[in-house]
User: Fold these one by one.
Assistant:
Number 1:
Amino acid sequence: MSQMRLSLDQLTGTNRRAADILLGNDRGGYTVPSAKLYPFQWNWDSALVALGFSVFDSDRAWQEVESLLSAQWDNGMVPHIIFWKEEKSYFPGPEQWGTTDIAKTPPTSGITQPPVAATVIERLLAEDIDAHRDRAAKLLPKLDRWHQWFLDARDPDGRGVVAIMHPWESGRDNLPDWDRPLSFIDTTGVGTYHRRDTDIVNKDERPKNDDYDHYMALVRFGRDCNWNTDHIARNCPFWVAEPGMNAILRRAERDLINMATLLGQDDIAARATARLARLDAGFEQLWSETVGGYVTLDLRRDEHATGLTSGSWLAMFAGPVEPARATKMAATLTYWLSQVKHGVPSFDPNHELFDSIRYWRGPVWAMINWMIATGLIEHGETDLADRIRRDTQALIDQSDFREYFCPVTGRGGGGTDFSWTASMSLYWAA
Ligand code: 9YW
């Protein structure tokens, strides 16, 4: 693990190349995920990329999370894309999201992404509490408002699980979990549009056109109500609670409580503690005895998904899982890993909907691996965690810093010179 602080000149080999990718994708205070494919600032990418910068440039790491949180909306939401510069090579752009009045400058998308930022900031702070106290203290109120927004906007009935209103909000765009909930959405009014992603990446590695029609129908739904959160919660045709988002939010609340306690921000610690109690209790609704793990729950139909995903393992990242369940989960994960060459696949490799190269329907993602391994270590599963860490670096060694990897062959897929893959290698895997 190369988590100790080094100067750029001290980095060699894979580590130096990873740092160069981050520097190459740096646009001055924010980092793009991949220069051609994703030319703006993405929410959870940015947070995770800050960890890579922290290895050799702590100031730059803080800038990354500061620029992300600077785009917070008045209602507390931190958007999933921040369109800092005009750039036509990505679709859907600011016109489709229609947030110019709400987001002011710069325009943003109208949804959020998994709030891993608090977890990252906690780690940046822990490196040198005295040096970073003031910077962290300014960010905590923003994290508090964002986390509160999740409960107000995405769980207004107080069930204890937050919903996503769009697959993109989960960060796991075309997961098989969304197939059925999306199938109820009317896409007839979507019209024609030009996807840009398939101009850059092989279409077999991307969501299908039919998925995109559904994505665009939901963007239109949000835009038509001016991203009104009450209207969305009551009427959005896609409204599901999934373990990845809920686990990451629970972890974020824990880390926010730690920071707020450390920095004497007692009001924030108290609010986060209350939110966490609600989320910890609510998470149980995602457990499916039939599937044998934490799965997506379609809140409009009260129906569990039929497969485990890489998000299921994040329950261990969220917080303590009772020992019997943790042991069962580790055994199932070990079985998964016996079915593929490299873990962790994003979807159950034995499920009929598994697709080893199509984006979130099978491929391995380095930053999900880091979160899974972190949770495993916290549950005493160190060998399994280490296997996942070694797999991650082996994939990068074989196929370079790609967006994601085929768990069966190790082949890289999607974008190249990818920021969060570089960050995870530098911070954790190499
Ligand atoms: C898209 C940037 C983003 C990630 C998401 C990933 C993908 C964008 O890329 O979504 O246009 O499909 O699914 O998690 O933040 O890396």
Number 2:
Amino acid sequence: FFARVELVPGDPILGLTEAYNADARDTKVNLGVGIYYDESGRIPVLRAVQQVERQLAEQSKPRGYLPIDGLPDYTRATRDLLFGARSPLVGEGRAVTTQTIGGSGALRVGAELLKKALPFARIAISNPSWENHRAVFGAVGFEVVDYTYFDAAAHGLDFDGMLADLAALEPGTVVLLHACCHNPTGADLTPAQWERVVALLHERGLFPFIDMAYQGFDRGIDEDALAIRLLADSPIRNFVVASSYSKSFSLYGERVGALTVVSDSADEARRVQSQVKRLIRANYSSPSTHGAALVAGVLNDPALRAQWEEELGQMRERIHALRAGLVERLAAHGAPQFGFIQRQAGMFSYSGLSRGQVERLRDEFGIYAVGTGRICVAALSAGNLDYVAKAVAAVS
Ligand code: LMR
């Protein structure tokens, strides 16, 4: 039956981790996948999370099924984190949050919902965007088009190009926007630029789909949610948010994400939610318990929440310091042209390295980066910073 099945290439990001794991060199560094590692090179288990984990272990609760749309304490807390606790839109019952299998699951369920509601719409994604966006939306039958986003020569946002392309889209087009810490470029919009984009989305009748996988990783929980807050305050009545706790709670493998759909009224929201639940039931039926219980346990306990915010702040500050350290070490090794890395936000930097240079980093130094030149700055540490800088300088 499978005789004609073709071999397809490995995933450009997760496939790198497989190659990295198989590499025997002890100097190897994985700058491929977007994971934050601490100073000792480990994925941190946050103290606030450990505390809830201990409580859960003591209670040893039965593992019944969660509701199709997830743990209510989790979805409520998620909605408040996205919109702020006193959002009028939330008060009107227009925003409904569903627990999903990671941020990717939120993208997929959101994509399926929109394909049903807007069967002839296209989706526009930034050029470049997260490698998997095209695949997720393509898989549910969307035609995916690009909008200009990055100016490779300036190593930053091409805002004029972005506005021009968005303005040329047909009304009704879904526009995927990264709320903060743009993946893969690290180039974000300023607050004033967000205001212009939101005004344009409204004028042109475009449908916003926000992807927020890094809330709190650039400037802060509320600051990084600016795009969502501006949309909520705008005359735009419908939009969708896919969000994730993989990074902000360091819970990657727990697959803790959420899909939030904003409707025109509480009644519309109920109808839309019935569709979301039907889509999930026909896919994975209902989400898993543990990760959501951890997040809800932290967010709904004021002391643990404060502790989490502090730990998140430490991760954020350390990434800023790593960016500065990398720029300084690169300059020390004779490569002063990488100053832009310090201006980029979040886990990633579009380093400007070519595919050939990325291959040399892997073959000669055991340093793994995405073929596009994306590096995960959050995988650096005092132990590998100089080694990486020296290698990058050598291939540049
Ligand atoms: C990344 O971009 O590296 C992360 O979002 C992990 C993933 O699933 O690709």
